[in-house]
Amino acid sequence: MSDRVKIFIDGSEGTTGLRIHERFERRDDIRLLSIDPKLRKDREERRQLINESDITFLCLPDDAARESVSLVENDRVRIIDTSTAHRTQEGWAYGFPELSGAHREAIAMGSRVAVPGCYATGFISLVYPLTAKGALAADYPVSCFGLSGYSGGGKKMIAAYEADERPAELEAPREYALSQSHKHLKEMKKIPGLLREPLFSPIVSGYYSGMVVSVPLYTDLLGDVQDPERIHALFSEYYKDSLFVRVMPLASEAECGNMLAGNACAGWDGLRIFVTGNRERVVLSAQFDNLGKGASGAAIQCLNLMMGCEEDKGLCL
Questions:
Q1: What pTM, to 2 d.p., does this model score?
Q2: Residue 316 appears among annotated catalytic residues
């Protein structure tokens, strides 16, 4: 696009919207369309700005995101949705270009792009290559656990953790989504082609941003990659051309005291993959920022592909 691209952020006051806005401050290839703060929930004002834009970001709750899509009247308007609303819906490109050439092309050429959820990003980065290469059967009973900073919980949770006086239970990590009904489960099942939703145990802790998502597996159920070395080789080959996904050397976790910190990638827009364990059981882990590759960073990456500019423009790698 030769002229500056007109961008509207619908929901610019939320955590993801604010981070996207910040990333545009030094870019000269876009023009942000601003909304009067008093009118940010006004349907007609939003309709006007959406249809005036070239690309609109939706940083909204699911129902509000669906409403915004219904306001599109101009066929050339392209949508990047950061909510859960459209991630498994037909006609929407899934915004994880590293998964395959088809995913990358769908994003670059698409008019409707759904940005992955943060936990889903970590999980799918680990499971998709295995299912795509036939190493993990679709009926494998996959389990997953993850640790995230409190910024992933939105304004209410951020306020609770940053209050001058906070309850004692906020001083310790807390497991949640105990009913096994986390909103990311649908995409965690569909995108890698699993036959059932994984057993998923997320944990929130008292630091701001960053996360680790892990998938434990039995090696004797992994086709012809039944040891850490071959599993690592599979991932290294799969992501060898990626700017954003880095497969860490085997045993590199030793440099971190054999621990993976949830906040180690805070402020960074890439994702690190670790293969750990032994010849009987391995743990695959993705370490990244829930506000980076897990949210606004991924949204900007998709924008860059849609605009045809450098994929990492305006991002921190």
A1: 0.96
A2: no
